[in-house]
């Protein structure tokens, strides 16, 4: 591989730096983007409930979440701008060759971004200047535009998984159909998986903040609703995400069998393939994992005796890093089912007593759920991106052929790392100052203190 890189003008260190920089930028931005997609909906729910019930706790939640939403939108705009530059600077072999194929979703995302920005400005500025109903209606385009932005961006990534909408003749791209490229076979499962994940991350992450406060003794109505509203949204979507994830896995089994083999650490093509939990790849085999006989064949093809393609069907140079993909997939699935169990626990308690479980263990789990949802999100994107390697455009363009051949990409990675460190600290500082500058009124902190006792 090093010889190929040197021939192209890049080094192995530059390629690694470019990939790490992209991973850092995407991994950071995706969390903020999920909050940008999910928090407007949570805010509107709280505002609507406050309007319907007249409850000041709902109104205060909506107002606080709206202010946080504005900060996160600004931060997301910064990280999104960095990403847009990185696509061209780090990967000219991709954008220079296929820019006209995948340019449409990025253009549409830009339009959605501006719509979201305009209505966010109206929503924040007109809080006390519009009647309640028109103000809530002004928030709906924020939700729709944020979701649309996520959809358009993920369609571009889906194209990288299943490239369509063009022909290549003598090294030239011809017969470009941007709509066919955007609505490629990977678009439906991948966009659905990401959008549901965005609402889950926003819900569990917001709820976890209030779970921590409740563990510290602040069990008034304000904090209880601050936990209940986002947790309910996230919990309701968790079984939906499990079903969508199964759909996505079947898609991978059909269209990307090598990625599926890496996800499960399967090296040999075999009928009745086992499902392996855990383990690491050593010398062409997965060691230390727990095998469930026929499990992979059953889950991937609904047939316990179905043949599943192994990694040995392709050359070693065409295989993704098995251990990373396999463990990331196990982490994503494990956390997903843990969140499903937590959601079922809450649903069972609510069905029996119309109340949340009255135990500190539930609040502890709720406090961890936000970080857990983020870990599952990052692990899922690791599977998606690393599992596609060594291709940046699956089966068409290798990552080594797309990277910028200019030397010194390592220094760009160092600079961007510093920028994101500063951005992280600044965002946390601003959000914390905003919270402290608008304390919860004593009347709300004293309300319904005994309505949620935990033991």
TrEMBL record:
Annotated TM spans: 27-48, 69-94, 106-126, 138-160, 192-213, 225-244, 327-349, 361-381, 409-431
Protein name (Swiss-Prot/TrEMBL): Cytochrome ubiquinol oxidase subunit I
Localization, UniProt: Cell membrane
Similarity field: Belongs to the cytochrome ubiquinol oxidase subunit 1 family.
Pfam families linked: Cyt_bd_oxida_I
Keyword Oxidoreductase set for record: no
Topology in membrane: Multi-pass membrane protein
Keywords of the record: Cell membrane, Electron transport, Heme, Iron, Membrane, Metal-binding, Transmembrane, Transmembrane helix, Transport
Species of origin: Pseudonocardia humida
